[in-house]
Amino acid sequence: MADTNSGWDGRGARGGREGARVRAQEAISGPGVPRPGVSGPGGTGSGVSAPAARGPRAARSRRITAVPIVSIVALAALATACEPGTATGAQDAPPPVRATQAAAPTASPSPTASATDDAKPPTPSPTTPPPSPKASTAAPARTAPEPSTAPAPRVLMRTGSQSDQVRELQARLRQIGHFGRNPTGYYGSVTADSVRSFQAKRRLTVTGSADEVTWKRLLAMTRVPTAAELHPPTERPLATPDARCLKGRVLCISKKSRTLAWMIDGKVVSAMDVRFGSEYTPTREGVFEVFWKSRDHVSTLYDTPMPYALFFSGGQAVHYSADFAANGYGGASHGCVNVRDKKKVAALFDQVKNGDKVVVSW
């Protein structure tokens, strides 16, 4: 016999929407929670709880709680209606976060955070300017060295000096490859450049003058020059004689080596350095003869001295030149063959005769 007042049907279950609601409530509250509207055994609505109930209804109540959770959730959805857009696979998505969980809890500082804070310097206050990076990386200031009070070494030879010591200086520099000519005994620009080269290579003070320090270093690195090294016939090596110079008495003059060799039958009697005319007053080339000798000649055209002049072609002659002795190859003649060694050209003047051959060639 059905209890129509309580909503239960003849099979012990409530029908319709009310039955579904009750089942959902049972699933949530469990069998020990009072359900409104459910009466006790007498159907009086006294609100007796499920555990206090006895008989078939209590058994049916326990069977109801055994319904699978998925079925209960489905029934609850029928009772409350679905949200718009909910898909059948919504159970795969993570559950929504409740409002109480969204708020970030106040966590105590982790060991990692505290270690990081210790590794970093504290943030300076706004009123304290940050340290300058240049100040932290700049090297400590160095004290400037005090200037040396030692006196400069005494200069022994310099540009313009002329002596046997200069000749030895040149010979010693030539031994170690710093002077590419024969010694002359005159300290000119070529010798100064050679001394600078030597000083720079040995990390000495580069002045171009031969002071005591430079001279002592050079003496320690070289040997005593021989007589041939100190007094070579010319500043530069002699060129191979022209074939026209190999017979007879010949003044063999080479523009290539800038030398003059006094030769008799192919043998060199003496040799000396010479220079020639400029581009506008060139020295003539060819084979000539000495036709006039003038010991103390003075040029009537240029009003300059031409001692020990040996004329071979018009106004061109072999003679001593004081300018060549002083300035070297920095100058030029007016077409004559200049000699800078006065002793050698004086001896040559005494040996050469009128009619002797003169060969000027490259």
DSSP E strands, number: 11
**Residues in β-strands, percent:** 15-25%
Helix content: 25-40%
Count of discrete alpha- or pi-helical segments spanning 4 or more residues: 12
Q: In what order do the strands lie side by side in the largest sheet?
A: 6-11-3-4-5-10-9-8-7
- Spell out the helices and strands N to C: HHHHHHEHHEHHEEEEEEEHEHE
Oligomer: single chain
Mean pLDDT rating: 75
Q: Please state the structural category.
A: alpha+beta
Poorly predicted regions are 1-15, 26-54, 64-70, 73-97, 99-122
Instruction: Report the C-alpha radius of gyration, rounded.
Output: 62 Å
Major sheet description: 9 strands, mixed
Notable traits:
362 residues; 12 helices; two-stranded antiparallel ribbon; alpha+beta; 9-stranded mixed β-sheet
Write the layout of secondary structure elements.
Layout: H1 16-29, H2 56-65, H3 69-80, H4 99-102, H5 111-119, H6 133-137, E1 155-157, H7 164-175, H8 189-201, E2 210-211, H9 212-221, H10 227-230, E3 249-254, E4 259-264, E5 267-275, E6 286-289, E7 292-298, E8 305-313, E9 316-320, H11 322-327, E10 337-339, H12 342-351, E11 357-361
Parallel strand pairs: 3-11, 9-10
Antiparallel strand pairs: 1-2, 3-4, 4-5, 5-10, 6-11, 7-8, 8-9
Helix pairs in contact: 1-3
